[in-house]
Design goal:
With 165 residues, this protein is α/β, with parallel strands linked by helices. The protein is 45% helix and 19% strand. It has one domain: HUPs (Rossmann fold). The structure holds 4'-phosphopantetheine.
């Protein structure tokens, strides 16, 4: 069985991520979308919330499994018997970090290869950080996320505003 993992923070999942998920899922029997638990970043959404949003967004893709992992990606891959990592590439600016991760993972676990999927042009400037920033200041980010993610972001920021009053 051809298995791959698409790891990330997914805080929250964007349409750019979903484009990569759809394209990767069509090339493997199972695609694990794996949310990192022990990130140094301070996420807006809990791991459970992020997995919930991913599950809703991918409910029509039968071979996608949304899971969490902590520790190293190579440990998850080895445990799940996965030898392919999927990562999306937007601009050249992504490349150095992505290349470093791919080479480090390969060094730590030689069975593991990384496949880069170039983003669809329309998602070139979409990122979770940009979406959060636009949402925070009540801008229009509709084209970048699903309706569920839009609602979840609005709830987070409206809730925060209420708490700050
Ligand atoms: O969406 P992100 O934040 O760019 O995803 C980064 C992620 C989660 C893929 C990366 O940070 C990761 O794999 N972290 C797990 C820890 C690890 O394996 N580090 C060594 C590889 S550099």
């Amino acid at each position: 069985m051809r298995k791959a993992v698409y790891p990330g923070s997914f805080d929250p999942v964007t349409n750019g991520h979903l484009d990569i998920i759809e394209r990767a899922a069509s090339k493997f029997d199972v695609l694990y979308v794996a949310v990192l638990e022990n990130s140094g970043k301070k996420p807006l959404f809990t791991v459970e919330e992020r997995i919930g949003l991913l599950e809703k967004a991918t409910k029509n893709i039968n071979n996608v499994k949304c899971v969490s992992f902590d520790g190293l990606l190579v440990q998850f891959a080895e445990r799940m018997d996965i030898d392919t990592v999927i990562r999306g590439l937007r601009a050249v600016t992504d490349f150095e970090y992505e290349f470093q991760m791919a080479l480090t993972n390969k060094n730590l676990y030689p069975r593991l290869d990384t496949i880069f999927i170039p983003t669809n042009l329309i998602h070139m400037y979409t990122s979770s950080s940009i979406v959060k920033e636009i949402a925070k200041y009540k801008g229009n980010f509709e084209s970048m996320v699903t309706e569920d993610v839009k609602k979840a972001l609005e709830e987070k920021f409206n809730g925060k505003e209420e708490n700050e009053k």
